């Protein structure tokens, strides 16, 4: 029986276009000045720049070089943990200033609340940092959804296409794999979760349905139908 829902964000609870056409461009526009102003005096930024330098091989004192690396990672949608941490800090400014609100599909908003009220425990697993996850749900256009979530996981538990990451999550949650349903729009993530014994549903929100043996859902109402049948 499913007792835990673990959900991806981009393409699952929220649109890919919001992430790629609003969040990423905002980060690209502001990250240079954010780092130039904070590199020396802000230990949280400095810590991430240490990691960018280590990962890229660019000299730690070459601030413009590090910014260039970060810009290229944004362009290439690289799921690098220090980039994701810095993006979370930047987006906090954007949300707080009202530059944008988090997108959440109406069906996701509806069923997250219903599942919470029904006693299911809800967790997020996204490549976006935990801070970014709390922001998109906390400042969503439909209100604050953070009270419905019991916890958040990001790439600090490992990459989303690696089965060990899901084993790490199971260990932290202290639950049996077959009690967890993972929702994602990316098949390689579903495959990795299944290798850890977790149940999955593939969110295919647009376009043709794939020819697959996997459990597929168009939206969270269809996921709910699956839950009720299990
Ligand atoms: C947490 S909102 C920003 C999402 C993000 O930065 C990202 O890379 C999307 O990753 P996901 O694992 O949610 O597909
Ligand atoms: Mg996704």
Question: Can you tell me the CATH class of the largest domain?
Answer: Alpha Beta
The first-to-last residue Cα distance is: 7 Å
Order of helices and strands: EHHHHHEHEHEHEEH
Low-confidence stretches: none
With helices defined by DSSP (H or I, 4 residues minimum), what is the helix count?
A: 9
On the 0 to 100 scale, the average pLDDT is 97
Bound molecules: the ligand CSCCC(=O)C(=O)COP(=O)(O)O, magnesium ion
Range of helix content:
40-55%
Summarize the structure in words.
This protein is an alpha/beta fold. It folds into 2 domains: 4-16 and 101-229, HAD superfamily/HAD-like (Rossmann fold), CATH 3.40.50; 19-96, Orthogonal Bundle (Transcription Termination Factor Rho, Rna-binding Domain, Chain A, Domain 1). The protein contains 9 helices and 6 strands. The chain has helices at residues 16-38, 43-56, 63-75, 81-96, 106-117, 130-138, 163-173, 187-195, 220-229; strands at 4-7, 121-125, 149-153, 180-184, 199-203, 216-217. Strands 3-2-1-4-5-6 form a 6-stranded parallel sheet, sandwiched between helices. Helix 1 (16-38) runs antiparallel to helix 3 (63-75) and helix 4 packs parallel to helix 6. The protein is globular, with a radius of gyration of 18 Å. The protein starts with a strand and ends with a helix. Magnesium ion (MG) binds at residues 8, 10-12, 184-186.
